Amino acid sequence: MRTVETSITIDAPAQTIWAILDELDAYAEWNKVIPRIAGLTTVGQTLSADIAFTGMPPNPFSPTIMRVVGARELRWFTEVPGEHGYRAEHVFKLSPLGPTQTRLDHSESFEGPLTEMLWPMMDGLGRRDYEQMNLDLKERAEQLARARVRLHPALDGRRDEGPRAGRRYLQCHCDTDPVLVQIEGPVEHTHLCGCSQCWKPQGALLALTAVVASDLHSVTANHDKLSIVDTAANIQRYACSGCGVHMIGLVADPNHHFFGLAFLHPELAGDIAAPRIEWAGFISSLISSGTSPRQLAAVRRALTGTGIEIYDMFSPEIMDLIAWHGVKLRSAEAAKSAARQSGRT
């Protein structure tokens, strides 16, 4: 067996590098060695690709995925059968050196009758091209890791913190006949949300969302312009038919853990600054909304710089409340079942 071994240290999180390696359609944007590769990166799948060493025309090959360990290892093999054939295993292995630095070990091993004939080329030209591919990957990953992202206008510059309590009026973006929602009580659990359901201002990656007790809100103008965005969703978000802004979100199911709460976007209160942002949730869900996985490290870095806690669901406080709500429902159902059994006897 002969092996071309290369390595490089990249100042970017492993997840960012992995996102580049896993986005097959974009390989031509950052490297010349494998300018085309297509297919699905799951174990057992065969890809369609071209490899183009310096000074040589692109050569088609069909690698088969043999190992996928997310954000750690991508491995495929190519096999040419016959007495003059060979088998090659190509490996990208990522080892985190810290939250913002990763070692890439990039190698290709050859075995079979044709190995010795291929080796002089692979040990020279092939090795140099793979080292250049590493440098190209490093440049792309580090650019992405340093990239600036616009999370939400509330974070632009030095954000002010408004009061939680007190009356406020939420207004949609219509120039005429805007929908108005009056809030009479304290706004709680103000957070940034990356889910695909929440309304976001133009150009913002995240929504600014909070809750208020549902009995403390009322629509005071142009109620007829509101309609439910998705009637199947647990939180039924009412949007203005004119501008599309989500004005309020309500839960219809009395057994749901958020029943009795109204969801709102505090920035719609105009001159009243939003309360302190307590946390950011559903960050990974940005990918479902069309954000490239390559950007997620920059998003998390920007949030970390604000001191805002980051979660991929809700905050621990709310997750505890949800879990306890489930226990209460199961306990109540068990008590009902026991009562029914007792009644039968």
TrEMBL record:
Does this entry carry the keyword Lipid biosynthesis?
no
Name any one Pfam family assigned in the record.
GFA
Q: Which UniProt keywords apply?
A: Metal-binding, Zinc
One example of the protein's molecular function in GO is: carbon-sulfur lyase activity
Domain CENP-V/GFA intervals: 164-312
PANTHER family associated with the record: CHROMOSOME 9, WHOLE GENOME SHOTGUN SEQUENCE (PTHR36166), SRPBCC DOMAIN-CONTAINING PROTEIN (PTHR36166:SF1)
Q: Which family does it belong to?
A: Belongs to the Gfa family.
Q: What is this protein called?
A: Glutathione-dependent formaldehyde-activating protein
Cite the source lineage. Answer: Bacteria, Pseudomonadati, Pseudomonadota, Alphaproteobacteria, Sphingomonadales
